[in-house]
Amino acid sequence: MPVDVPPPTVDLSDRWQLQTDKTTTPFDTTIVTVRAHTRVFTDTKLSAAINVSESTQEDTTTTWRFVFASRLQLSRSTAMSDSILKLVRNRAASRFVDILDNRGFDSIRKTETRRFDRGDETMPIRRYRATVAPADDSAQTPVEAYVTTWAQPQDIIIGGGAYPLSVPNHVQFTHDQGRKELFDIIRSIE
Questions:
Q1: How far apart are alpha carbons 186 and 9 in whole angstroms?
Q2: Which of 85, 98, 124, 155 has the fewest CB atoms within 10 Å, counting from its CB?
Q3: Which domain of life is it from (predicted)?
C-alpha cells in the first residue's frame, strides 16, 4: 500500500492561487518506487492585469507566471546518493520542458545551468527561455523559467517556475521582480 507523500510547503502571497495539487507515482520498479506530491500555483493578479485583450476587451486564459513545488519520496530506506539525485535532476529538467509546453509556452530552450544558493546549500539551477502568446494571437512575449532540485533527509524537492520578461505598459511588473520573487519562492519550499 503506497504511503501518502505530504505536500511541499511554499511561502506565497495572496496573489498566488493553487491550480493543481496531485500525488503521482512517476517511477515504479522492483528496486525502487518514487511517489511525488506536486503543487502548481499561478499568479492570478498578474494574469488578470495582462489577460484582457486590448482589441476585444475579452479575458484570455494565457499562463503568464507560475511556480511549482514537488516532494518526492523513494521507497528505499538507504541514504540519498549523489547518483540518485543526479538522475532525478535530469528527469526533472526534462519533465519541466514538458510542463512549459503543456502550459502554452513555445520555442523552449535551455540557456544555462548556474549555481543557486538556498540557505547554506548551493545547487545547480537550470534556466530556460521560451515565448508565450495570448489566446488572441497577438505578439509572442519572451519568458524566463528556472528549475532546481535538492535532497532533504527523507525527500527530494523540485522547485521552479516561469515569468514574462516583458508585459504591457499598463502592468506594474518587471523581469527583475519576477526573478527575485521566483528565487525567494524556491528558497521557501520545504
A1: 10
A2: 98
A3: Archaea
Which residues, at least 6 apart from 25, have a Cβ–Cβ distance to it below 8 Å? Answer: 2, 33, 34, 35, 36
Domain boundaries, the chain: 16-188
141-165 exposure pattern, b = at least 16 Cβ within 10 A, e = fewer: bebbbbbbbbbeeebbbbbbbbbbb
Three cell numbers, residue 44 = 492570478
- Cα–Cα distance, 124 to 9 (Å, whole number): 21
**pLDDT tens per residue, range 58-78:** 555 677 899 999 999 988 655
Residue-wise pLDDT for 132-165, tens only, equals 876 655 678 899 999 999 998 889 999 999 999 9
To the question of domain 16-188 being in CATH 3.40.1130, the answer is no
